[in-house]
Amino acid sequence: MAMSFLKPHCTHRLPSSSSSILNSPFPTISPTKSLFANGSSFSTRIPIHFRARPISSTQTKPFSFKAFSSQISASAPKPDEMPARVGFLGLGIMGSPMAQNLIKAGYKSSPKEVAASCDVTFAMLADPQSALDVACGEDGAAKGLSPGKGYVDVSTVDGATSKLIGTRIKATGALFLEAPVSGSKKPAEDGQLIFLTAGDRSLFETVAPLLDIMGKSRFFLGDVGNGAAMKLVVNMIMGSMMASFSEGLLLSERVGLDPKVLVEVVSQGAISAPMFSMKGPSMVQSLYPTAFPLKHQQKDLRLALGLAESVSQPTPIAAAANELYKVAKSRGLSDEDFSAVIEALKVKLQSQSKE
Predict the structure, then answer these.
(1) Which of 103, 112, 250, 257 is 20 to 30 Å from the Cα of 71, by its Cα?
(2) 32-35, long-range: CB within 8 Å, 24+ apart, which pairs?
């Protein structure tokens, strides 16, 4: 599949970010290159026979999360109801495989200015400031949006940032959907992400087939901010689990047990989790191939702690885990996988041994 790269105007402050425009496989367009600022871009149009996976689930009643939470069942929209051109801003560890899955669905590439050229634009950025810059900066995506277009922010940000982006996007007349994902590099590559969406319901329904290409399930959570909150709660739990798992691995070794056997025992018990089975063997070898960078896990813990503080919710376990990730960052492990948090505990053990 041909792919052309260009540097779009909307990523001027993000050297590592990139973007893409997804348009039609017919007529075929030859790859070209063009420089704008920082990042990459490709384009393709949605084919008539769109690959979509209906998701079966049951609706749930509203509860105190300020909106109802449910996993949506939906059949594929009619061809004339689907966006003809789809843009993707941010082709990093997560964004790249997500966009690749759209390409595999039948796409060719052609460089265009992203938001102005597309019916729907996706954005997957590393942090709140980057997401805000790309959406609302001097040459941000909002400058290319207009009534009838849609903007889907897949970044993990705090609720306040998401609401600000949504307000700026809607001021252009375009529709906005926040859609942070649960899942890391491998689920992104395999199209097995979980989308936690909130915002404009009609845009959610329009992009449902695209979400189904990139993910295994999708939830609509109501008002903007709820998707961000759900993602932060999920990642708070995940970060705390990894810190606890790390403690267990080191303790087992300390008392003369084989940590490899511990990984096997855990994988067969009630606390079995894919995260432990996948990362445990590498952690035992002090190897941390990056699927979810440690710096992003610490950022999400920080944001989750801020969310908890905003509603006076005590989170002592997450707060303790956050301190470990901060130690790991100080040891130069920011770009390693978040499982490298175990190294922070090793540092503490070494300090105790010297005392």
Answers:
(1) 103
(2) 32/4, 32/110, 32/111, 33/4, 33/5, 33/6, 33/111, 34/6, 34/7, 34/111, 35/6, 35/7
- Distance, C-alpha 5 to centroid of its chain: 22
Other Cβ atoms less than 10 A from the Cβ of 27: the count is 8
Task: Kindly give, in sequence order, each residue whose CB lies less than 8 Å from that of residue 51, ignoring residues fewer than 6 positions away.
Answer: 105, 106, 209, 212, 213
Which residues, other chains included, contact 301 with Cβ-Cβ below 8 Å and sequence gap of 6+?
235, 236, 239, 318, 321, 322, 325
Question: CB–CB of 22/42 below 8 Å?
Answer: yes
Q: Which two tokens stand for residue 130?
A: 């980057």
Q: Is 177 helix (H, G, I), strand (E, B) or coil?
A: strand
Q: How far apart are CA 200 and CA 222, in angstroms?
A: 8
Q: Among candidates 221, 229, 176, which has minimal Cα distance to 198? A: 221
Helices (H) and strands (E) in the chain, counts: 12, 9
DSSP 250: H
Closest CA to 300 of 188, 180, 199: 180
Q: Which of 108, 149, 185, 231 is catalytic?
A: 231
pTM: 0.75
Q: Rounded to an integer, what distance in angstroms lies between the CA atom of residue 103 and that of residue 114?
A: 16
CB 158 within 8 A of CB 226: no
> 350: which 2 tokens?
């070494």
pLDDT digits (tens, 9 = 90+) for 256-300: 999 999 999 999 999 999 999 999 999 999 999 999 999 999 999
**192 vs 40 pLDDT, higher one:** 192
- Kindly tell me if the per-residue pLDDT of 13 is higher than 60: no
Closest by alpha carbon to 18, among 46, 48, 42? Answer: 42
Whether 95 contacts 18, CB under 8 Å:
yes
Cα 106 to Cα 124: distance, rounded to the nearest angstrom: 21
3-state secondary structure (DSSP) of residue 212 = helix
Cα–Cα distance for residue pair 145/300, rounded to 1 Å = 29
Q: In angstroms, rounded to a whole number, what is the distance separating the alpha carbons of residues 126 and 296?
A: 7
Tracing tokens 């801020």 back to the chain, one arrives at 306
